[in-house]
Amino acid sequence: MKSIAIYTSTRADFGLLKPLINQLISNKKLEVRIFAAGTHFDKNFGNTIEEIEVAFPQHVFYKIHQNMNEDPQLRNIRVMSESLLLYSQYLQKDPPDFAIVLGDRHEALCFGLACSSLNIPLAHLHGGELTYGALDDKFRHCLTKLSNWHFTACEIYRQRVIQMGENPADVFNVGALGVENALHHKLMSREELQNDLGIKIPAETYLFTFHPETNSADYGAEILKSFLMKVADRLKSHNAFVIITGVNSDPGAQAIRNILNDFQAQLGSQYVYMKESLGLTRYLSVMKIATAVLGNSSSGILEAYSLKTPTLNIGNRQEGRERETSVIDLGSVSDCMRFNFDTVVRMKNNLTETNTPSTFGNGRTSGLIADRIDQITHDNREFTFKKFFDVQIIK
Predict the structure, then answer these.
(1) Cα angle, residue 306 at apex, residues 303 and 308 outer, rounded to 5°
(2) Nearest-angstrom CA–CA distance, 105 and 212
(3) Is the pTM of this model over 0.85?
(4) Which parts of the chain are beta strand (E)?
(5) 153 within 8 A of 119, measured Cβ to Cβ
(6) Is 353 helix (H, G, I), strand (E, B) or coil?
(7) Least C-beta-crowded within 10 Å: which of 59, 71, 332, 387?
(8) In this structure, how many other beta carbons lie within 10 angstroms of the beta carbon of residue 326?
(9) What is the DSSP letter of 219?
(10) Lowest mean pLDDT among 40-44, 89-93, 111-115
(11) 2-174+364-377 maps to which CATH number?
(12) In terms of Cα–Cα distance, which of 156, 150, 78, 74 is closest to 112?
């Protein structure tokens, strides 16, 4: 039996990884070990380790408590230095045969560095993507170079990973796990959500998530304030409602959180509901019934289209990603002030009638990854030695 460690440090990546974890557990030739770290142990971010332990009580193998309140920026470096040491110690003490990491966060990069230094073969999910508005863009590409195998969300991303010197035989376009969740996860009805959250969810309801723009001097505060003014006008003029989920742990998080708290205080519970973590089921259920997804979460780029919900993408955090036609980019304060919310109301109605498949797969991602990992972990190939693959150089 081969052991495989799956790294998770946030509510976001765990929600994406759940179907893959289930697929890998069903393979009786694998011992699945969840490597839980980061914000999962912080009550300010929902204490989501409890959700992991409920879902997979026999598989939470590594539990690394960290202080993730890294605002201002130097604490971000402190978290990285501590993460590299802690992760290496845990992995050296009981190394898995193989490991999986998703995405682009700084603490995930530390997991990749630890695995690479300890010669633990690594598979990377969601490589080849671009997010110019966040430092994550650099961390993602670093993880690509540390990893042995790559599972990308679309063909353009696959080609970009190959462009970075990765062997095409080890780079697989499997689609996005978020699309699989959107298409196949059992969701709650509006009535069930209302009873569960204890709120009234009117016909015009928005789902809002905004994370710091870590490549911006003000972390996106100016455009967020301007957009919230526009949102407030819409809520009051149309008796609409917004459900806001929590900010991540990036530098600038507290500044963004303060702006959102002030917004809630000014408008009150008649118009605004805030919850640090909705959890996967409630989050996707709200997304499905929402008039639109607002903010700058990658879920508005990846998952929302499959749930037939348009997205207003605010600022530049997600600049560079491939996107569906249901995404409207508001990249400046003037864009926000000119925008008319009637546009997304019409888009929502039109999306309910479309059957065009997502750019990011058909909802079979976890099965495709699990099948490939089964082959990888049971062949006789040397895992840890990797050669640079040269594409044709243009002179």
Answers:
(1) 110
(2) 13
(3) yes
(4) 2-8, 30-36, 60-63, 98-102, 122-125, 149-152, 171-173, 205-209, 241-245, 272-275, 292-295, 311-314, 327-330
(5) no
(6) coil
(7) 387
(8) 25
(9) T
(10) 40-44
(11) 3.40.50.2000
(12) 150
Q: Any residues with CB less than 8 A from the CB of 89 and at least 6 apart, and which?
A: none
CB-based contact 15:366 (threshold 8 Å): no
Q: Quote helix, strand, coil % in the chain, to nearest 5.
A: 45, 15, 40
Which residues have CB under 8 Å from 375's CB, separation 6+? none
Taking CA atoms, 171 is separated from 74, 86, 165, 254, in Å, by 35, 29, 11, 38
Q: Is the peptide bond before 72 cis (omega within 30 degrees of 0)?
A: yes
Helices (H) and strands (E) in the chain, counts: 15, 13
**Selection from 10, 16, 79 nearest residue 47 by Cα:** 10
Question: Which residues in the chain are classed under CATH 3.40.50.2000?
Answer: 2-174+364-377, 183-351
CATH of region 183-351, choose from 3.40.50.2000, 3.40.47.10, 3.40.640.10, 3.30.200.20:
3.40.50.2000
Q: What is the pLDDT of residues 161-219, one digit of tens each?
A: 999 999 999 999 999 999 999 999 999 999 999 999 999 999 999 999 999 998 899 99
Task: List, in sequence order, the alpha helices (H) in 164-267.
Answer: 177-184, 190-197, 221-238, 253-267
Which candidate, 150, 196, 140, 194, places its Cα nearest to that of 171? 150
Query: Over the stretch 269-321, which tens digit does the pLDDT of each residue have?
Result: 999 999 999 999 999 999 999 999 999 999 999 999 999 999 999 999 999 99
